[in-house]
Amino acid sequence: MKLEAVGLKKYFPVTGGLSLSRARGWVKAVDGVSVQVVEGETLGIVGESGSGKTTLAKLFLLLERPTAGSLFFDGKAVADFGRDDFARYRHAVQAVFQDPYSSLNPRMRVEDIVAEPLPPDSSLSRAIVAERVGEVLQLVGLRRESAALYPHEFSGGQRQRIAIARALVTYPKFIILDEPVSALDVSIRAQILNLLKHLQEKLGLAYMIISHDLAAARYLATRLAVMYAGKLVETGECDAVYAEPLHPYTEALLSAALPLHPSARRQRIVLSGEVPNPVNPPAGCRFHPRYPRALPQCRSQEPDWKEVRPGRFTACHLY
Amino acid sequence: MARAASPLLVVEDLKTYFFTRRGVIKAVDGVSFTLHTGETLALVGESGSGKSVTCLSLVRLVPEPAGRIVAGRVLLEGEDLLQKSAAEMRRVRGKRIAMVLQDPLTSLNPALTIGTQVREVVRLHQGLRGTPLRERVLEALSRLRIPAAGTRVGHYPHQFSGGMRQRVSSAIALSCAPRLLIADEPTTALDVTIQAQYLDLLKEVQASAGVAVILVTHDFGIVAAIADRVAVMYAGRIVEMGSTLQVFDDPSHPYTRALLRCLPDVGPRREQLVEIGGQPPDLAQLPRGCPFAPRCPERQPICEETYPPTVHVASDHVASCWAVPASKARA
To answer: How far A74 CA lies from chain B's nearest CA (Å)?
Structure first.
């Protein structure tokens, strides 16, 4: 099974001023992203805030309709989906969000929260649903009896386990993890990261982990995609990208992450400036205003997406 | 590092409790440390470990009446801040001790231009007026490398990016040349590349101004990058304190060791993270002995009975753990 985006774009209109109904411009949140996730792998999507990571996740979850480009599930375009296809897609692709305090309804019991992704059309008997809920709760390391409790009776880490159980209840193939450990205490992060890894091995899941935490992404991801201002700048095997980043932005981003030892204080490439305004991104390569050694064509011409080395893709004029 | 004869700040057995309907919450329960001029001390710990309340206690901003400093001494250049009147404390805050908080969007007033907000502090503490005041404001902003400070003074916080806002609040904090800067998770709201910019700038400004910094963080990467010394906090107490190299190379408390092993690193990939089981403790119902004992892999019977004494692992490296004397007898 494969989940694939081809030339995916999502523009949001900017309205305001006198013409409230007309767009004055477009926020190019995702601007032509092609990426795929295959069964059993983990794709890490890293980038700074405003790079379009979360919008990409929402497109994959069908929570936003793409402005252009298409999404393919098992070779079939989402645009051509019938009713059954949508049901199948929603079963196969699930999500875990960042904040387990806001992603769980405080007025629902855990059993109802976890069972919510299941079809509402009572094709499943209550006994089967209860059995399935108990099973996934045990999978994530909670007791079956937790089903009768409310979210406030759990700690942050346990809540994130409930959110993971909810994602597992439909026997998914793909889980989109949007900053799954950012809201958790440091001592709890390892518990959740290990649980995710364990579940992946046990159930053969594919993950797409979206994170600004480069260490967490590195721990889970087998492949890495780096986003900048709505575009992919580089993809490749995770270890290879960390060992030898090709794009200058990837290099700077990875060097800005702080290693866990004082003697590993290494030469940081400190970028000047900030992520560009997505309404009016710079011409040419979007990274050129922050790159001191930009070539003339970086300023005028958008670089092509190309395979520089086997399995290593980047959009950069240096290659 | 060259040490001045007397430390800038001495904190002795500080205790700050919150009296609530659920019982007494011992947020800070006997914290002691010293800090020298120009030094950076990192307070690390999880949420609820007492790092932020420790900092608020130093400037006497613990939310009252629920919260109260019940014991201890806070000596800034020899004067006990806990004995000062409210009016005297107002002259200490902002002038001798300044703070930078996590989220600059909430610490800056959205309805005032940043020029007004810097000016207020400089006028109050330095009594400047007119041109010297204006010059000092521009100087404070330029020192934190805010481009085009001359026009930016007329802008409002929402017109700045997150990284720039944090520079503005740091400019306010450093505008009166404080002796001590307390930075409470200053980069948590920032992106990694902006965090790198900010930390470099902080270090540079600190070196040129000779200010001591207490940096509160939960991120060991930041500690490794800029701290001279580290104090690891758990359940309201410092469980281990030493120079950054000592603590990273020779972590002596099981909690420190566990924390350092459970984090994913950007350096070499870790195949398996070693989890810390259980949850951080409920501060209203602390166990009798060591609060980390229920989660500790090296637990002994005595750990559940009595809180361990603080022992020296090396000179200037202390830990509070019953297991330490046995394993570190060589020291």
So the answer is: 31
